[in-house]
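[Automated response] Your request has been received and processed.

Submitted sequence:
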Amino acid sequence: QVQLVESGGGLVQAGESLSLSCGASGRTLGTDTIAWFRQAPGKEREFVAKISWYSITRYADAVKGRFSISRDKDNRAISLQMNSLKSDDTAVYYCAAGRPIASTMATIGGYNNWGQGTQVTVHS
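Generated structure:
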């Protein structure tokens, strides 16, 4: 399996935007579904968004309308555009790849390949 590498995290003010990227060290991402999860201090890792090989997307209610996930035309990177950021969005964001079924699409168990994570901090 390819090694997933996240980039783009940082420190922003509430209301600002940030874009995260998930790549496969120069290789294509294949036909896996790619998802973003996040984990805030003291909380469980939670689903944020996913995009399938055929570009079907799904979002957590907490980010719907603010975040947008997309796949580049060369299938070498997945972007997560985060707008109108809130302090509640502060977390380590993880990219994950896998072949989830419908019932596991938004669960950790649906993915078997994880990146190391990138920190996003939103100051209010």
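Summary generated for your ticket: The mean pLDDT is 95. The longest strand covers residues 91-98.
If you did not submit this request, please reply to this message.
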